[in-house]
TrEMBL record:
Pfam families: Arg_tRNA_synt_N (PF03485), tRNA-synt_1d (PF00750). GO terms for cellular component: cytoplasm. This is arginine--tRNA ligase. PROSITE patterns: AA_TRNA_LIGASE_I. GO terms for molecular function: arginine-tRNA ligase activity; ATP binding. Gene3D superfamilies: Arginyl tRNA synthetase N-terminal domain, HUPs. Belongs to the class-I aminoacyl-tRNA synthetase family. SMART domains: Arg_tRNA_synt_N (SM01016). The keyword Repressor does not apply. Signal peptide: none annotated. InterPro entries: aa-tRNA-synth_I_CS (IPR001412), Arg-tRNA-ligase (IPR001278), Arg-tRNA-synth_N (IPR005148), Arg-tRNA-synth_N_sf (IPR036695), ArgRS_core (IPR035684), Rossmann-like_a/b/a_fold (IPR014729). It comes from the Eukaryota.
Length: 180
């Protein structure tokens, strides 16, 4: 399973892969894609699987082993494959399965990123060349701190795109010329 995790760069996709395995075991007769989202309230966990209510509406008339969405959520949690990235799980409300990520796993990943370099974990984009046009001060007027804002945002976007191995063309637009 570790090799598959390396192939999938997105943390959300890695969590979804675990829930995909769990759903295959929980409801083998149904073809269900995992619905995984970051938890809106972080005291419940880091990510949550929201499949239980949708599954219940699909299978409630089938005389199966489930009596509602919460037991489905419990079964999804119980069938979740063991993974070092998951610290704990819980079922909340009508079957939401909350996942708390392991602090040790996160620390290992960060350490590996620092040792191996950003190329090993930066997301890969479909585009190869990107133009970032930023700044736009009007040189006919007085410069002020507001001009720095767009420059900093543009430079930040350009750096993030460079991390994805895209060729970034930085264009610094100077605004209209007016009469000086």
């Amino acid at each position: 399973f570790e090799q598959e995790e390396e192939a999938v760069r997105s943390l959300k996709k890695q969590i979804a892969k675990l829930f995909e395995e769990s759903l295959k075991v929980t409801v083998p007769e149904e073809s269900v894609d995992p619905v995984v989202e970051p938890c809106q309230n972080t005291r419940f966990g880091d990510y949550q699987c929201n499949n239980a209510m949708g599954l219940w509406s699909k299978i409630k008339g089938n005389n199966g082993p489930f009596t509602g969405p919460r037991p489905i959520g419990q079964a999804i949690m119980d069938n979740l494959p063991a993974s070092e990235m998951v610290d704990s799980c819980s079922v909340a409300g009508p079957g939401f399965v909350n996942v708390v990520l392991s602090q040790q796993w996160i620390a290992k990943r960060i350490q590996r990123m620092l040792l191996d370099g950003i190329e090993t974990w930066a997301p890969k984009l479909q585009v190869k060349r990107v133009v970032v046009d930023f700044s736009s001060p009007n040189i006919a007027k007085e410069m002020h701190v507001g001009h720095l804002r767009s420059t900093i945002i543009g430079d930040t976007l350009a750096r993030m795109l460079e991390y994805t191995n895209a060729e970034v063309l930085r264009v610094n637009h100077v605004g209209d010329w007016g009469t000086q």
